[in-house]
Amino acid sequence: MNKRDYNFSAGPAVLPEPVLAEVQRDLMALPGVGASILEISHRSKTFEDIIGQAESNLRQLLAIPDNYAVLMLQGGARLQFSMIPMNLMGGGRRTCDYLVTGSWSKYAAQEAVKFGETRVAWDGKPTNYDRLPTPGEWRLDPKAAYVYYASNETIQGVQFSTEPESGDVPLVCDASSDFLSRPVDVQKYGILYACAQKNAGPAGLTVIIIRKDLLERSSDRLPGYLNFQIHAEAQSLWNTAPTFPIYVLMLVTKWLIADVGGLAKMEAQNRAKAKLLYDVIDASGGFYAGHAQPSCRSMMNVSFRLPSDELTAQFLHGAEERSMTDLKGHRSVGGIRASIYNAMPVVGVERLRDFMLEFRENSDE
Amino acid sequence: MNKRDYNFSAGPAVLPEPVLAEVQRDLMALPGVGASILEISHRSKTFEDIIGQAESNLRQLLAIPDNYAVLMLQGGARLQFSMIPMNLMGGGRRTCDYLVTGSWSKYAAQEAVKFGETRVAWDGKPTNYDRLPTPGEWRLDPKAAYVYYASNETIQGVQFSTEPESGDVPLVCDASSDFLSRPVDVQKYGILYACAQKNAGPAGLTVIIIRKDLLERSSDRLPGYLNFQIHAEAQSLWNTAPTFPIYVLMLVTKWLIADVGGLAKMEAQNRAKAKLLYDVIDASGGFYAGHAQPSCRSMMNVSFRLPSDELTAQFLHGAEERSMTDLKGHRSVGGIRASIYNAMPVVGVERLRDFMLEFRENSDE
User: Fold this and answer.
1) Is A156 within 8 Å of A103 (Cβ atoms)?
2) Does any CB of chain A come closer than 8 Å to the CB of residue B234?
3) What's the pLDDT score for residue B136?
4) CA-CA to A294 of 20 to 30 Å: which in A211, A359, B25, B88?
5) Which of B97, B178, B198, B255 is catalytic?
6) Can you give the pTM of this predicted structure?
7) Which residues of chain A does B323 touch, with a Cβ-Cβ cutoff of 8 Å?
8) What is the mean pLDDT of residues A46-74?
9) What is the Cα–Cα distance from B79 to B92, expressed in whole angstroms?
10) What are phi and psi of B342, to 5 degrees?
């Protein structure tokens, strides 16, 4: 087997090793099927069982109520940036509210503008998106078609600890980078969606959990693939589904249930992993400067800066030598970003923690 | 290794065994990379090399000129059914012409209607799509934004042997089910596109070859993911690309170049495979009745009926016993459909031929 590093990529990102091992074992042919998962029809009994199991695992992990549909589509979060206003805003007759807390909610709001009046209810730009709004800081429109936010901003490393209160207005959440990392109360959402390539599988799949009454807002005039109602009626098999990513999602959710023991246990692990790194940052006397304000810190993406670009380059080089990769921060924030999703083992984070301590010690001399 | 059958699925469909073997070998980690193809960033050097190699292989196999862009997107042919009229028709100011020769061109025309005046220039419905138009039979609008057709209809098994003549009007072709099965002259097309899951890779990827001057028609008001111009400028990395299907496409095109020896040789193999089955049909005295008229027969999807539903069921059962699967015809045509894409080995088609001969002989008694 080729050597595996500790991969801190923000996405596509590390997957659980037992999942990869099962994919590899059965790659040439699924047991008793006679063909690879890459070769079987999306309408075969075998695949119907796989997509059914993926949905049933998601329903179990997140306690998804019956009045919510689960869709598995292509096109990533970017396609959702369009689909959500196109389906929910009644062809521009209604308005929508966006909480802009980082790069991804900003891109989403920029797209919504094309489809109707889009109000930015709060914008974290003045402090380079290092914090989240407090409940009194934003005012929502009670007549809005929906309120949109991103539960975790991958680039800035800020994460909501609970859902913003939206009253009777449907709450729409991009959970791409913290999906399945902790329990959430699905009933608080109109739509909860996530692309798979952080915590749920490979690139090419987006999971959309949508309250069924919202499906009635989809117009027949929408582009067919962009119509939530069509996909819900066809149980995500209106067209050829992304069969392989759905298979991996099924294996990842099985791993979360059987190996991890559910999302409460996953959250405890994630919290402990993040604490290892934030503790080093907080005890570093400013050598490591976290981007997010402490109350808004992400458990998934730990963004911090070093005192100089030279030290940052040395840090990245030293990490690579120790088999830790993809730690370079996004250019809009700079510094280091350690993405420590569900599948990053504690031992990987401990290795990074040890290196951070060692690097700082050596830099002090 | 789990047993592999001969898989005659219409798509997702059989892939070359050497491709599957390489995917399996490196599934846990690509050589020298330290992470699985499922885990690496779409912006990593490793992936940039992979997508670059996939494009360069396609350009070599199809002799794609420099004034064409190659896009690799999500959403399948179904999303193209919307994207093409949305990008090319100038927001409904122009009209378009469709040749309706089977189920897929029919669905495409039904979608185009939403975005502007859509003319059906020819419709094969009167004979249940068992033939293609002859050049004199349709009249195209010389002012149309484009002329659309499907080079091969997967369900009905009819295939154009050459491109319809469209004069100065850009020709748009859905080549989903015969892409890379034979050489084509790309310069005849405005857009040549194909979803991957028949001849080019797994589900979740669509390749769009588009003449660059057509990109100027894309409006800024389009949904971002549906804008060809945006994807062309970003070289298909505007958002997270479907990294794994693009990796498999790279391996499949490498196989076509290095193992098969190019598309002319691939076509010769495909022609020989199809002849094995059509010869049995033609010599069966009507026992096997081909759906397509002989001059329009597909080299990819061989559709035929047996004298009764009972015999069809017996045939399918006997084929399964002999490790030949997915031969059931689509419900709109009935009978049997043998999809014999590039990766179906001659030995698999010979086995089916032998069974067809044996089955007929036993039924004659």
Assistant:
1) yes
2) no
3) 84
4) A359
5) B198
6) 0.98
7) 34
8) 98
9) 18
10) -40, -45
For the cut 70, the answer to whether the pLDDT of residue A365 exceeds it is no
CA–CA separation, B202 and B250 (whole Å): 12
Name the residues of A annotated as catalytic: 104, 174, 198
Residue B78 at interface with chain A, using a CB cutoff of 8 Å: yes
**Backbone φ and ψ of B66, nearest 5°:** -65, -25
Residues pairing with A290 in the sheet? A304
B window 42-71, beta carbon within 8 A of A: 42, 44
Rounded mean pLDDT of chain B?
97
pLDDT 10s digits, B207-224: 999 999 999 999 999 999
Q: How far is B23 from chain A (nearest CA, A)?
A: 8
CB B11 within 8 A of CB B198: yes
Spell out the SS3 assignment of chain B. Answer: CCCCCEECCCCCCCCCHHHHHHHHHCCCCCCCCCCCCCCCCCCCHHHHHHHHHHHHHHHHHHCCCCCEEEEEECCHHHHHHHHHHHHHCCCCCCCEEEEECCHHHHHHHHHHHHHCCEEEEEECHHHCCCCCCCHHHCCCCCCCCCEEEECEECCCCEECCCCCCCCCCCEEEECCCCCCCCCCCHHHCCEEEEECCCCCCCCCCEEEEEEHHHHHHCCCCCCHHHCHHHHHHCCCCCCCCCHHHHHHHHHHHHHHHHHHCCHHHHHHHHHHHHHHHHHHHHCCCCCCEECCCHHHECCCEEEEECCCHHHHHHHHHHHHHCCEECCECCCCCCCEEEECCCCCCHHHHHHHHHHHHHHHHHHHC
Report the run of H or E that residue A124 belongs to, with start and end: none
Go through the domains of chain B in sequence order and give each one's CATH number.
Answer: 17-260 (3.40.640.10), 262-364 (3.90.1150.10)
Smallest Cα–Cα separation from B274: which of B294, B300, B296? B300
The two tokens of residue B289 are 């009745």
A12: preceding bond cis by omega (within 30 degrees): yes
Nearest to A239 among B44, B76, B225 (CB): B76
- Tell me: pLDDT of B365 over 70: no
Q: Is B39 on the interface with A (CB under 8 A)?
A: yes
Please give the interface size between A and B, counted as residue pairs whose CB atoms are below 8 Å apart.
225
Average pLDDT over residues A320-331: 96
Are the C-beta atoms of residues A159 and A297 closer than 8 Å to each other? yes
CA A34 to chain centroid, in Å, comes to: 34
Rounded mean pLDDT, B28-39: 96
- Going from the C-alpha of B311 to that of each of B10, B227, B316, B362, the distances in angstroms are 22, 49, 9, 11
Which residues, listed in sequence order, are joined to residue A173 by a DSSP beta bridge?
A149, A192
Question: Which of A3, A205, A223 is the closest to B86 by Cβ?
Answer: A223
Q: Tokens in use for A27?
A: 């790659």
Cβ count near A289 (within 10 Å): 13
Q: Mutual orientation of helices B309-321 and B346-364 as an angle, nearest 10°?
A: 130
Q: Backbone dihedral region of B145: left (phi > 0), alpha (psi from -120 to 50 degrees) or beta?
A: alpha
CA B264 to chain centre: 17
Interchain proximity A245–B244, CB inside 8 Å: yes
Residues of A in Cβ contact (< 8 Å) with B111: 223-224
**B220-269: per-residue pLDDT in tens?**
999 999 999 999 999 999 999 999 999 999 999 999 999 999 999 999 99
Q: What is the pLDDT of residues B45-55, one digit of tens each?
A: 999 999 999 99
pLDDT digits (tens, 9 = 90+) for B307-334: 999 999 999 999 999 999 999 999 888 9
